[in-house]
């Protein structure tokens, strides 16, 4: 399996209004390190998995609307618990929409909350 991974970061604010989240129920900020790993069993005709420039541009484009936002106020997240796992899947889905024609394989999106905690979502890009 070949992998090309790119990295960006975003700063957001949100709350997680459920007793399961203790003090994180209140509004707080988070800085996520966001990795997008494009995976393929074979290389394309140019001997690459995914063009790194395109992958980087797509990740930046997907993250831009989230940057410095309070996710609680964004209509696509109304009534949702915007956990790290949830956001990993959301970012994955947004990237897939943009790379469908340029990439076939698996995409894993990893959100790092800190140097000791992260969550990810992986799925096929068809």
Please give a structural write-up.
By secondary structure, the chain is of the alpha+beta class. The chain has a single domain, classed as 6-pyruvoyl tetrahydropterin synthase/QueD (Tetrahydropterin Synthase, Chain A, 2-Layer Sandwich), CATH 3.30.479.10. The protein is built from 2 helices and 4 strands, in the order E-E-H-H-E-E. Strands 1-2-3-4 form a 4-stranded antiparallel beta sheet, covered by helices on one side. Helix 1 packs across helix 2. The chain is elongated and about 50 Å long. The mean pLDDT is 96.
Give a topology summary.
Blueprint (H helix, E strand, L loop, with lengths): L1 E13 L13 E13 L11 H12 L20 H16 L5 E8 L5 E8 L1
Antiparallel strand pairs: 1-2, 2-3, 3-4
Summarize, please.
With 126 residues, this protein is an alpha+beta fold.
What is the class in the CATH system? Alpha Beta
In terms of structural class, how would the helical and strand content be classed?
Answer: alpha+beta
Number of helices: 2
What percentage of the residues does DSSP assign to strands (E)? 25-35%
Quantity of strands, as a count: 4
Mean pLDDT: 96
> Into which percent range does the helicity of residues fall?
10-25%
Annotated CATH homologous superfamily = 6-pyruvoyl tetrahydropterin synthase/QueD
> Overall 3D geometry?
elongated
CATH topology, what is it called?
A: Tetrahydropterin Synthase, Chain A
Q: Give me the strand/helix succession.
A: EEHHEE
In total, the number of domains comes to: 1
Strand line-up in the sheet with most strands: 1-2-3-4
Question: N-to-C terminal Cα separation, in Å?
Answer: 17 Å
* CA-based gyration radius: 15 Å
Largest sheet: 4 strands, antiparallel
Question: What is the level-2 CATH architecture name?
Answer: 2-Layer Sandwich
- Detail the poorly predicted runs: none
